[in-house]
Design brief:
The structure holds two protein chains of two kinds. Helices cover 32% and strands 12% of the residues of chain A. Chain A is an alpha+beta fold. In chain A, 42% of the residues are buried. By secondary structure, chain B is mainly alpha-helical. The chains are: A alpha+beta, B mainly alpha. The complex binds iron/sulfur cluster (2 copies) and FE2/S2 (inorganic) cluster (FES).
């Protein structure tokens, strides 16, 4: 059954054996090392199922017994972002990365590395806490908590829904941060508030600033984006938009927030305190 | 120390936007004017209104450039304009280096054209900084010990002294040192023009002028066109001066210094000209 009729795709050879090269580390701050495994992938297998195979039989290609490779995952359908890793040098989700696509021939090699912009928990599993911290910096939510019912919110136009819908599909995976030259690993949590916030948070700020109720806290979001590590720290390399698995127009969000901060700063200068 | 950091953080946005703005006005604007002036050594050859003492086509380039330089030197408060420019460049450079150091190149992994330009923008910034410093120090502040051949630029002898500085010699030869200086000029102006054109493209995103991908692409075409034009002028200037014989240029300049003396030569032809006909 040819599920993906892709013209350029080489047909996978059934029963082939391929190599998986994994960059491993035993824990946070521990030195990393490479280990290679040989596996015979099932048809339509993804990276996760191959990692499961390795976990069931943790023996390297050289025949040495080792510990099972650790990884993170959740939804297995590219909506949670937990399984994000660097596959053959490119950041993407391992659950939606099919072996038949990237290693169709016998002897093909797949390299797996943890994202380098987040601290490693173990092997391919990283701690994305800073990504969520940065969403808090811009209050990426709609303020609805109160002591009484706020009633129905205002109606949103269809045109605005169309713009906001795609922004809302962000799954906090971290691809945009991993590929961004301005976003670097920061172990010191006290610096998280002043180092680059990242394309995902800028885009989420735009999403909630456009929301009819969310716009009530627009000024707070823009204030956060004016400061150190805010939108000005983007260097316009535009890698983020190219690696985002949800094809979110991140560079448009960055420019839109650039405009909003320009106007906000001018308004502040004339009417702020 | 802590108050300075406090200031930098409190005024973070303003400083970032000033950094962006100074790159366009005054620095970018000056770059356009400066390259227009300097390339007059080439386009001046077509200038029919060049000083009448310039007969040959190449002499017209020298005369036009001299006239441009004289005009600039006649501007009011020229030193003030220069100081504003130098301070802007210093500000743009200091903060540019500081900001550039917050990033880490990753073109080895993400080989996108935009990512290459991100890297080039920073590298050309460093090169342009070195080049502009050398350029201003030698030709404006008179640090002639940094010039092979020891030429000091003189605004009354604008073309000949510039040609001598680029050739490493005032006597019509080209020295090895001169070739190196000329090559450094090619690298320096190429970097400066790229840095300006690409910076103009990113500035439109930074300020939120171009938002949609299509608008960014359209503005990119405008910046590419502007950059190509400036690049042509920049290279024309260097080729024009590096291939110019300083001795021949000096003859034109001396004639111009002479003819610019009070009595207009056309109105009263000097009597000395008649006797030689026997
Ligand atoms: S455009 Fe900005 S946020 Fe996106 S990758 Fe480049 S520097 Fe990072
Ligand atoms: S913007 Fe895209 S790449 Fe970034 S976290 Fe969201 S889904 Fe992932
Ligand atoms: S497991 Fe959720 S995105 Fe891969």
């Amino acid at each position: 059954m040819s599920a993906q009729p892709s013209a350029s795709r080489t047909p996978p050879i059934a029963g082939r054996r391929i190599r998986i090269k994994v960059k491993r580390a035993d824990g946070p701050g521990k030195p990393s090392r490479w280990e290679e495994f040989e596996v015979q992938p099932e048809p339509n297998a993804n990276i996760i199922s191959v990692l499961q195979q390795i976990a069931a039989n943790p023996v390297t290609a050289e025949g040495d017994h080792t510990s099972p490779v650790a990884w993170d995952s959740g939804c297995l359908e590219e909506v949670c972002g937990a399984c994000t890793m660097v596959i053959n040098g490119r950041v993407r989700q391992s659950c939606s990365c099919l072996i038949d696509d990237i290693a169709p021939a016998p002897g093909d090699v797949i390299t797996l590395e943890p994202m380098e912009k987040f601290p490693v928990v173990r092997d391919l599993w990283v701690d994305r806490a800073r990504l969520f911290h940065n969403l808090k910096r811009v209050k990426a939510w709609v303020p609805i908590d109160g002591t009484y019912s706020l009633g129905h919110g205002p109606t949103e136009s269809a045109a605005q829904q169309a713009v906001r819908y795609v922004l809302s599909t962000c799954m906090s995976c971290g691809c945009c941060l991993e590929a961004c030259p301005q976003f670097t690993l920061e172990d010191d949590e006290t610096r998280w508030d002043t180092t680059f916030i990242g394309a995902h948070a800028i885009s989420q700020a735009r999403l909630f600033n456009m929301h009819e109720t969310g716009r009530q806290t627009k000024a707070d979001r823009l204030d956060a984006l004016l400061g150190p590590g805010g939108v000005s720290d983007c260097g316009n390399a535009q890698n983020c938009v190219k690696v985002c698995p949800k094809e979110i127009p991140l560079t448009e969000s960055i420019a839109a927030i650039g405009r909003a901060t320009t106007l906000h700063a001018i308004a502040q200068w004339f009417s702020g305190r | 120390m802590s108050t300075r950091q406090g200031f930098l953080e409190r005024r973070y946005f303003l400083l970032r936007r000033l950094h962006s703005l100074t790159g366009i006005v005054p620095i970018g604007l000056f770059l356009i004017m400066h390259l227009t002036t300097n390339s007059s050594i080439v386009w001046g050859m077509m200038n029919k209104r060049a000083d009448h003492s310039a007969h040959a086509v190449s002499e017209r380039g020298v005369a036009t450039f001299q006239e441009e330089v004289n005009w600039i030197n006649g501007l009011p408060a020229i030193l003030l304009i220069e100081i504003v420019l130098w301070l802007s460049i210093a500000f743009h450079a200091v903060f540019g280096v500081y900001y550039a150091r917050t990033g880490r190149f990753n073109t080895d992994r993400y080989r996108y054209q935009d990512n290459w330009r991100y890297m080039l923008q920073r590298i050309t910034g460093y090169i342009a900084l070195l080049f502009i410093f050398y350029h201003v120090a030698t030709l404006r502040w008179g640090w002639s010990w940094l010039v092979p051949g020891g030429t000091t630029w003189d605004h009354a002898y604008a073309s000949s002294t510039l040609a001598a500085a680029l050739r490493g010699s005032a006597d019509g030869n080209v020295t090895i040192g001169g070739v190196l200086v000329s090559l450094f000029y090619v690298l320096g102006v190429t970097s400066s023009v790229f840095h300006f054109a690409n910076g103009l493209w990113t500035a439109a995103i930074t300020w939120g002028i171009t938002i949609s991908v299509q608008a960014q692409r359209r503005w990119g075409m405008v910046c590419l066109g502007l950059g190509t034009g400036l690049m042509a002028m920049a290279w024309a200037s260097i080729i024009g001066f590096a291939t110019l014989d300083p001795r021949k240029a000096q003859i034109v300049e001396e004639r111009m210094l002479g003819t610019h003396a009070p009595p207009a030569p056309e109105a009263t032809p000097p009597p000395a000209e008649s006797p030689p006909e026997p």
